[in-house]
Amino acid sequence: MNGRTERTTPLSRSAMAYVLAGGRGSRLHELTDRRAKPAVQFGGKWRIIDFALSNALNSGIRHIGVATQYKAHSLIRHLQLGWAFFRRERNESFDILPASQRISEQNWYLGTADAVYQNIDIIESIGPEYIIILAGDHIYKMDYEVLLQQHVAQQADVTIACVEVPLADARGFGVMHVDESDRIIDFLEKPANPPPIPGREGVALASMGIYVFQRDFLFDVLRRDADDPHSKHDFGGDIIPALVREGRACAHHFARSCVRSAQEPEPYWRDVGTIDAYWEANIDLTDFVPALDIYDRTWPIWTHTEGTPPAKFIHDEEGRRGQAISSLVSGGCIVSGASLRRSLLFTGVRVNSFSQVSDAVILPGADIGRHARLANVVIDRGVRIPEGLVVGEDPEDDARRFRRTAQGVCLITQPMLDRLMTA
């Protein structure tokens, strides 16, 4: 279900997807202490970046570049393991582009625009006609071919993908003020009074951080920006506002290109940039009919898949029964005489006897000790939960020991537990 129209030669075959994956992800706190936000695990088997990359692949794009910077080792390793199947002999390319001071020996990537500018020579060697700039840290399914078609049809200098959000929520986004033809007439960064969509009171258009350019036009813009000593070299802060003022900038409504199965009544897009948003988006997948259909085989989300044994549930006696209700349990997990409710377990998690776990997101390799009671938690990779630990019942005690959010979700990492054990 999307707005693609048939073409003899898809525009996607002459496009390159350029994924910006260098952000710190500071609002995820300790989850990004050792990994970039796009490398954070999501949904039981994926990394966040897999959604943008899969959208590109499924849309027909065969040239992809990923710009990395902060804490990139985990991300780069994942890309090498899961996305190394592109072949030059098939006119395909997949380039990992760490900040390597290609232009200046003093500067790493100074901003999102500079992260593209510093690799102009690599992009030129590939020779795409169009470049789609993507954020590597959002969860959604989108057919970029539809976006490309609108860009060409409207003869835009830049086309910006936008998601419709309630006015009350739009204050936290970059908001597009558009006319009746979706020409952007103003760009407002986190406005106090966001303008509504014409004819749609109560709804605003927020930028998704997705931009389409014709290659040579983009290069000219980036070179001028690089020479501007007053620029922060950022798409959202410098490039886009200038093009809105001086060029032809058009908005693309995400609903027109969102890929949805019959099980997805509404367009789905999530910024999982906070602990609460990350927990909620993962837990939502346990719903009877989740808002995001991860079972849609017509638009698969690709990733590196580990060879793991099936999940295992053991023991069947009162008070010690391995069971999972309304939960997702990945390969290699063992639920040994414990009870799970509305929880999501990544690969290789072990939950030991007499434990009770609910509303939990548990990252790979964690081990839950006996008699633990855990509710409303995110447990980091490889964490060893000690026997009898109770989280989610005493807010003050939780906040003293772990990172507890305003919505009552506790992030638990191994250093937090180590400090607790030595206190």
Automatic annotation (TrEMBL):
<feature type="site" description="Could play a key role in the communication between the regulatory and the substrate sites">
    <location>
        <position position="69"/>
    </location>
</feature>
<dbReference type="InterPro" id="IPR056818">
    <property type="entry name" value="GlmU/GlgC-like_hexapep"/>
</dbReference>
<keyword id="KW-0321">Glycogen metabolism</keyword>
<feature type="domain" description="Nucleotidyl transferase">
    <location>
        <begin position="18"/>
        <end position="286"/>
    </location>
</feature>
<dbReference type="InterPro" id="IPR005835">
    <property type="entry name" value="NTP_transferase_dom"/>
</dbReference>
<dbReference type="GO" id="GO:0005978">
    <property type="term" value="P:glycogen biosynthetic process"/>
</dbReference>
<comment type="subunit">
    <text>Homotetramer.</text>
</comment>
<keyword id="KW-0320">Glycogen biosynthesis</keyword>
<feature type="binding site">
    <location>
        <position position="207"/>
    </location>
    <ligand>
        <name>alpha-D-glucose 1-phosphate</name>
    </ligand>
</feature>
<protein>
    <recommendedName>
        <fullName>Glucose-1-phosphate adenylyltransferase</fullName>
        <ecNumber>2.7.7.27</ecNumber>
    </recommendedName>
</protein>
<dbReference type="InterPro" id="IPR005836">
    <property type="entry name" value="ADP_Glu_pyroP_CS"/>
</dbReference>
<dbReference type="InterPro" id="IPR023049">
    <property type="entry name" value="GlgC_bac"/>
</dbReference>
<feature type="binding site">
    <location>
        <begin position="189"/>
        <end position="190"/>
    </location>
    <ligand>
        <name>alpha-D-glucose 1-phosphate</name>
    </ligand>
</feature>
<dbReference type="Pfam" id="PF00483">
    <property type="entry name" value="NTP_transferase"/>
</dbReference>
<keyword id="KW-0119">Carbohydrate metabolism</keyword>
<feature type="domain" description="Glucose-1-phosphate adenylyltransferase/Bifunctional protein GlmU-like C-terminal hexapeptide">
    <location>
        <begin position="309"/>
        <end position="412"/>
    </location>
</feature>
<feature type="binding site">
    <location>
        <position position="109"/>
    </location>
    <ligand>
        <name>alpha-D-glucose 1-phosphate</name>
    </ligand>
</feature>
<keyword id="KW-0067">ATP-binding</keyword>
<feature type="binding site">
    <location>
        <position position="174"/>
    </location>
    <ligand>
        <name>alpha-D-glucose 1-phosphate</name>
    </ligand>
</feature>
<keyword id="KW-0548">Nucleotidyltransferase</keyword>
<comment type="function">
    <text>Involved in the biosynthesis of ADP-glucose, a building block required for the elongation reactions to produce glycogen. Catalyzes the reaction between ATP and alpha-D-glucose 1-phosphate (G1P) to produce pyrophosphate and ADP-Glc.</text>
</comment>
<dbReference type="Pfam" id="PF24894">
    <property type="entry name" value="Hexapep_GlmU"/>
</dbReference>
<feature type="site" description="Could play a key role in the communication between the regulatory and the substrate sites">
    <location>
        <position position="108"/>
    </location>
</feature>
<dbReference type="InterPro" id="IPR011831">
    <property type="entry name" value="ADP-Glc_PPase"/>
</dbReference>
<comment type="pathway">
    <text>Glycan biosynthesis; glycogen biosynthesis.</text>
</comment>
<dbReference type="InterPro" id="IPR029044">
    <property type="entry name" value="Nucleotide-diphossugar_trans"/>
</dbReference>
<dbReference type="GO" id="GO:0008878">
    <property type="term" value="F:glucose-1-phosphate adenylyltransferase activity"/>
</dbReference>
<keyword id="KW-0547">Nucleotide-binding</keyword>
<comment type="similarity">
    <text>Belongs to the bacterial/plant glucose-1-phosphate adenylyltransferase family.</text>
</comment>
<keyword id="KW-0808">Transferase</keyword>
<dbReference type="GO" id="GO:0005524">
    <property type="term" value="F:ATP binding"/>
</dbReference>
<dbReference type="InterPro" id="IPR011004">
    <property type="entry name" value="Trimer_LpxA-like_sf"/>
</dbReference>
